Structures are given as C-alpha cells and as structure tokens.
Amino acid sequence: ENLDKGLEKTKSSFFDKMSKAVAGKSKVDDEVLDDLEDVLISSDVGVATTIKIINRIEERVARDKYLGTDELNKILREEIAALMSESESGEAANIQLPDVKPYVIMVVGVNGVGKTTTIGKLAHQFKSAGKKVVLGAADTFRAAAIDQLQIWADRTDVPIIKQKMGSDPASVAFDTVQSAVKMDADVVLIDTAGRLHNKVNLMNELTKVKRVMQKVIPNAPHEVLLVLDGSTGQNAFEQAKQFTAATEVTSLAVTKLDGTAKGGVVIGISDQFKIPVKYIGVGEGVEDLQVFNKYEFVDSFFK
Ligand code: GDP
C-alpha cells in the first residue's frame, strides 16, 4: 500500500499514457508499439532498455501472429520483470546480514540524492530488527553532512562516530570500524562524500577509505550501496556510470520516487547496470524506505 502511494505519479502517468496508446485498438500493431515506445521513454526507462522491451514485444507478436491490446499489460509486465534479472527469485532483496560481524556498508552517491536520509532509514530498519548499528560520518567535506547524520543518529538512537569538518574521511572510517568492533556492533553504515567534479579524486578517496577500513576488517566494506535520486531521471544513469567506474558498487537504492513520474528509471538502471536495486525511497520519513521487489514494483505500474 505504501509502495502504491509512493509510486502514485509514475503509475498514473504511465497508466494514462498506456490507456491512450491502446484506445480504440483491439490488437497490438506498429502504431501501438510506437506509442508504447514513447510511453516507456517518457517514463524514463531509458532508450536502450526501451528498445529491448519493444523488441521483446515485437518477437511475441511475430511468434503468436496476434496480440490483443487486452493482453499487452500482462506481456509487458512479464517482459519488464524478465529484464530486471538480477533479482530473479522475485524475493524482496534487502541487505541480508550474514554471520560477518560487524557487517560494513559503505554508502556512496552525489550530494543531495538522499544518501544521509537513506542511511537513517536503514539504521532504523536494522535497529528495529534488533541489530546493533553504528554510523560513520566520513563525508567530512560539508559541515551540513555531519550535522544531518547526527540528526538521524539522534532520531534513530544509534551511535555515530564523527570528527571535525575537513578531517580525513579515511580516518573517520577507521575510527568507525574500530569502535564498531569494540562495541560488538552488527552493522556499520559509513557515509562518504559524493563529489563528482573530479573523478580521480572520487576514486582515490573511496579507495583510501576502503583500504584504511581493511586494516581493521580485512573484507570491509562488505557492501557498497550507491544511492541515486530517481527524480533526476537520466542523470541517475550518468551517476551510476561514474560511480561504477570509480569503485565496485554492489547494490543500489533509488530515492525520491514519490513525487516523480520518472519511476521507470529503476527499470532501466536495473537492466543496464546489472546491480541489484535493493531499496527504493518513497518519502522523507523514517519508514519510507521500501525493500525492493521487482514484481511488486512492475505490478504497481499497472494497478
Ligand atoms: P544527501 O545530501 O545525499 O545526504 O541527501 P539528504 O539525505 O540530505 O536528502 C536531501 C533531501 O532529499 C532531503 O530534504 C530529504 O528529506 C529528501 N529525501 C531523501 N530521500 C527522499 C525520498 O525518498 N523521498 C522524498 N520525497 N524526499 C527524500
């Protein structure tokens, strides 16, 4: 229900356009396919993924000779879900905490995408599941970033390790994992600075943060979560490209899907980068982080 509400705009825009595309038509013909292509592109699915989807529908039309417009939604659902193949089981794909303790999650992303908020929401989820959480304020570039993380630490009542603005992010990360080990914490969430203006700097900084953490925990970080702002549509693709080039990204969170009609971006990103989308942000509140499930997501477009 929360998901349906969070994706309201994407859903109604997609649904309206789809209805127009098939209005007065009983079978899927070239014109319907052209319109469908426009609908997918205007929902920010992205050109490459849209072409894949259209090709798949065309193949089905060719194979079965006839495809009724009444069946189009069902076929579209199947084909879209099939493209988002990395969560094949369809199981909700949240971050599982294995026996590793503490489990270190480094969170990356450009400023303003909702990184701090996502960390706060995750802290709340892990804490509610009975886990001991520690936050690390390794985005030392902006004072506001440290303050924001502190607010979330207070709100969720979890400890935070921080230093002064301008201090070495790697040093904060080191302190954080060291404290987490001492506190016998289950999970560590490390905030990092997301400055993209200089790719080499970004890469060097993230590499250094990782290397220093590994002095305490050899396999850290166990997870690198990239946060993308879904409301920026194609910009989110560009950011995914740059971050995946700078560091190994193991999972994605796409935020701000409430209040945008660009929710299709999740489909394109999931197809193009083959990195599992594990969470979607559908609001500013502590509860507004959904564990991503591709079937539920795709279904919500057609409800
Ligand atoms: P950061 O700079 O990446 O750490 O971004 P913040 O976490 O400070 O978030 C920037 C703004 O986006 C804040 O006003 C958040 O409340 C808002 N925000 C974050 N996630 C979501 C979301 O899923 N939905 C909405 N509507 N707003 C969000």
UniProtKB/TrEMBL annotation:
<feature type="domain" description="SRP54-type proteins GTP-binding">
    <location>
        <begin position="276"/>
        <end position="289"/>
    </location>
</feature>
<dbReference type="InterPro" id="IPR013822">
    <property type="entry name" value="Signal_recog_particl_SRP54_hlx"/>
</dbReference>
<keyword id="KW-0547">Nucleotide-binding</keyword>
<keyword id="KW-0472">Membrane</keyword>
<keyword id="KW-1003">Cell membrane</keyword>
<keyword id="KW-0378">Hydrolase</keyword>
<feature type="binding site">
    <location>
        <begin position="191"/>
        <end position="195"/>
    </location>
    <ligand>
        <name>GTP</name>
    </ligand>
</feature>
<keyword id="KW-0342">GTP-binding</keyword>
<dbReference type="GO" id="GO:0005525">
    <property type="term" value="F:GTP binding"/>
</dbReference>
<dbReference type="InterPro" id="IPR027417">
    <property type="entry name" value="P-loop_NTPase"/>
</dbReference>
<dbReference type="Pfam" id="PF00448">
    <property type="entry name" value="SRP54"/>
</dbReference>
<feature type="binding site">
    <location>
        <begin position="109"/>
        <end position="116"/>
    </location>
    <ligand>
        <name>GTP</name>
    </ligand>
</feature>
<dbReference type="GO" id="GO:0003924">
    <property type="term" value="F:GTPase activity"/>
</dbReference>
<dbReference type="GO" id="GO:0005886">
    <property type="term" value="C:plasma membrane"/>
</dbReference>
<protein>
    <recommendedName>
        <fullName>Signal recognition particle receptor FtsY</fullName>
        <ecNumber>3.6.5.4</ecNumber>
    </recommendedName>
</protein>
<dbReference type="InterPro" id="IPR000897">
    <property type="entry name" value="SRP54_GTPase_dom"/>
</dbReference>
<dbReference type="GO" id="GO:0005737">
    <property type="term" value="C:cytoplasm"/>
</dbReference>
<dbReference type="GO" id="GO:0005047">
    <property type="term" value="F:signal recognition particle binding"/>
</dbReference>
<dbReference type="InterPro" id="IPR036225">
    <property type="entry name" value="SRP/SRP_N"/>
</dbReference>
<dbReference type="InterPro" id="IPR042101">
    <property type="entry name" value="SRP54_N_sf"/>
</dbReference>
<dbReference type="GO" id="GO:0006614">
    <property type="term" value="P:SRP-dependent cotranslational protein targeting to membrane"/>
</dbReference>
<feature type="binding site">
    <location>
        <begin position="255"/>
        <end position="258"/>
    </location>
    <ligand>
        <name>GTP</name>
    </ligand>
</feature>
<dbReference type="InterPro" id="IPR003593">
    <property type="entry name" value="AAA+_ATPase"/>
</dbReference>
<comment type="function">
    <text>Involved in targeting and insertion of nascent membrane proteins into the cytoplasmic membrane. Acts as a receptor for the complex formed by the signal recognition particle (SRP) and the ribosome-nascent chain (RNC).</text>
</comment>
<dbReference type="Pfam" id="PF02881">
    <property type="entry name" value="SRP54_N"/>
</dbReference>
<dbReference type="InterPro" id="IPR004390">
    <property type="entry name" value="SR_rcpt_FtsY"/>
</dbReference>
<comment type="similarity">
    <text>Belongs to the GTP-binding SRP family. FtsY subfamily.</text>
</comment>
<keyword id="KW-0963">Cytoplasm</keyword>
<comment type="subunit">
    <text>Part of the signal recognition particle protein translocation system, which is composed of SRP and FtsY.</text>
</comment>
<keyword id="KW-0675">Receptor</keyword>
